[in-house]
Structure formats: structure tokens, C-alpha cells
Input
Amino acid sequence: MSYPSLSNRVVIVTGAGRGFGRLMSVALVRAGARVLGTAVRAEAELLETSRLAGGQGSGSFLALMADVSNPADCERTAERAREHFGGVDALVNNAARGPLEANPDYYLAKPKFWDTSPDAYRRMVETNLLGAFYMARAVVPTMLARGFGRIVNISTSYPTMVMQGLAAYGATKSGLEVSTLVWAKDLEGTGVTANVLLPGGPSDTGFIPGGTVGTRSRPDFRQGKGARGDEGRVGGILPPEIMIEPTLWLCADDSNGINGRRLVAKDWDPDLPPAAAAARAMQDRGAVPRIM
Output
């Protein structure tokens, strides 16, 4: 799908060194966007994203090592985008610490919440929840001044939020979705929007234990061809590429007026026109997020 409005659009993607962040960054550059991608732990991974993005369409990629859990780093990231690209049009809050960091055997061991390391719990909250807030806080004033902006917060499925063994991770993602709803209300009528995007099930990234990343996706999976909903229970591992088209749409003018909504990438049908695909992937609006 083509999104002409992404040409020269300035997008910050956090956690751009691998997984969803790398795929979204490269796709945005291919679509003509100017992307500032951040990472905190592995500079080599971020430079590999920069290499992959090179020569992809008319866009460009700027790598910056920055820690979203540090408010000063978030301000520095926003300032770097303004200095290098002239502003910030969209923010994809993708950086996150996964459950493996709290317990490498979380899937089978299902550790109790009281067995979680306080340091691991704190790091997860500071990155997954506070980091998204710090980044949004750093870029929204510029967006408001320009009367345009996009915030895309990457979340997870409802069953994952309440899965035993994921006390810290689930809490941060449910908190992020509540935050998104409040941000959307604060931003209503400004031209700046805040929405949630999630894959809809376990995806073949480093967050999932076992096997070799990049080889574990369901070979028979066809995006947008199954029943809508039923998130988190997909009978296998999803290809991470399903996040690309919804991300492009949310960052483009095509999503004008869409605010405070939740899109499930597995339900996006790439064979439909973008508006119809988005409608299929978009969940019904509820009065409040419901977890229990």
C-alpha cells in the first residue's frame, strides 16, 4: 500500500534495534519518512537497522543511542529530531523490556509475583510505561504547535496482560493502554492523536523464548483472513511483519481523526483498501479499558 503523506514525515521509533522496531523503521523509510531510531543496549543492532534502511525509498534513518527510561535522554531525542529533521510528526513508542528479563523461564515456570526481582520490575515499569510517557511528553508540545502529530503505543494482547508469570510486563502494558486513552482525551481536537497497536498474539521476536528468532512463525498464517478478535490465542507464533502496514497507516494522513483506538495487527487484511483494513483491525470502542 502507498501512503504519499509519509514522504518527508519525521517519525521517532524507539527500540529500533531489532524486532518490531527494526521492521517498522525500515518500512517507514521505504515509504519516504525520515526516521530517528533509538536503542539503549546494543549499538551494533541499531547500526544494522540503519544499514538495512539505507537505500530504501526516498526516506532516511538517523540512529541515536538513548534510554527512554531517562527523561533527559527523551528530551535529547526530541531535540535531535528537531535539529536534524526540523520537527517531529509521529512517535512510535515501541521500546520495551520483555518478560524474559524478569525470568528467563517465565513461560514454563510461571513465577509468582513475589519471586520477581524488584530491580527487574522497576526497570520494566521505567521503560515500558514511564518511557512512553517521557517520550510523549518530549514531543507533544512541538506537535501541538504545528497542529499535527501521531503517537502510536505498542501494546500486547489482553490474555498476555493477565498471564500468570507476567505480573510486571502485563501491568506495564495495561497501564500503557489506560494512559493512551487519557492522552487521547487530552489531545482531542488538537490534530494530535494517540492510539494503540498490538500484534494480537505471540510474535517471532526476541520476546518469545525457545527456537531461533526468525524461523518460528506459523507457515499457514494469513493476515486478516481469520476471525476477528480472539487475540492472544492464535495457535502458534505470528510473523512480526504484520505490524508494518498498520504502523504506516497510523503515521499517515489516512488515519486523520482516529484517536484513542486499539488496532490488532493480525486482523488487518492487506488485500483490502487501507480504510477497510483499518476498520477490520480496529476494536470496538469501550467506555474504559477492561482487563478483568
Observations:
- The first helix runs from residue 19 to 30.
- The beta strands are 10-13, 34-39, 60-65, 90-93, 149-154, 192-198, 262-264.
- The chain has nine helices and seven strands.
